[in-house]
Amino acid sequence: MPIDARTKLYLLMGNPVDHSLSPAMHNAAFANLALNSIYVACRVENDCIAPAVMGMRALNIAGANVTSPFKETVIPYLDSISAQSEQIKSVNTIINQEGKLYGTTTDGEGFYLSLLQVAPAYKKDQSILVFGSGGAARAVAFTLAGEGSGEIVIINRSRTRGQQFSDMLMRKTPLAKSVFLPLSEQSIRKALSRCSLVVYALPVDSPEFLEALSKMGSFRKEQLLFDLRYKPERTAVMQAFEDKGGDAYNGLSMLFWQAVKSFEMFTGRSAPEGIMKKTAGL
Prior knowledge:
Layout: E1 8-14, H1 22-32, E2 37-43, H2 49-58, E3 63-66, E4 80-81, H3 83-88, E5 93-97, E6 100-104, H4 107-118, E7 127-131, H5 135-146, E8 151-156, H6 159-172, E9 177-182, H7 185-192, E10 197-200, H8 207-214, E11 224-227, H9 236-243, E12 247-249, H10 252-267, H11 273-280
Parallel strand pairs: 1-2, 1-3, 4-6, 7-8, 7-10, 8-9, 10-11, 11-12
Antiparallel strand pairs: 3-5, 5-6
């Protein structure tokens, strides 16, 4: 479909964005449904998020996805946000509603759909380790807590952010137990010994995490690790976890599902999941 004055424009705002598969998925979906829309990735400098959001209003941008490092810092510049985004302080989807910008998150739902797809026997009441405290980590933990997790252990380099994260889960969800452990090889080994699901939500391979894995015995086969990164396809963390007998997955399936949910919010149409999945390489 040709681009014209009626074409709706959707953005990905983050830094970096060059690696993102979101434009390919959304544009393939627009083409499949013959929607006069286009989706482009925009690198936003760290001190420019405010004018970037104001530009959405000025240029009548129809919607946007938000990725690192802006999922939290974008919030003050929106007109309203969903209840979940308010609780976890994270937005990954913005919808322009007649000049009013509404923010919400599809990260948690996207992760949970991915989890059920690759691990249909997943038991909801298990203990879970969440490694990191960024927007995606908070969204995933919030969703898992709401789905009936028995315990969520938070490990994070910043004690303040990690403890606040743990406290939020106890206040805002039906979770029975959440604890914060400091980032250390000993804490990681302690958490890994009792957690059946590990959500790795850091942008780099943690030396402490890799060291802890190297000193662990074999995992139970049902122990799972999800590294929320999807590039590279296999990370050092994933390989080290599998070397101990666990199953490890990257974040590509999560990206696909959160994109599906964002697309449906953007357009009010059911997403062509097969087209989007093929475009993502799933």
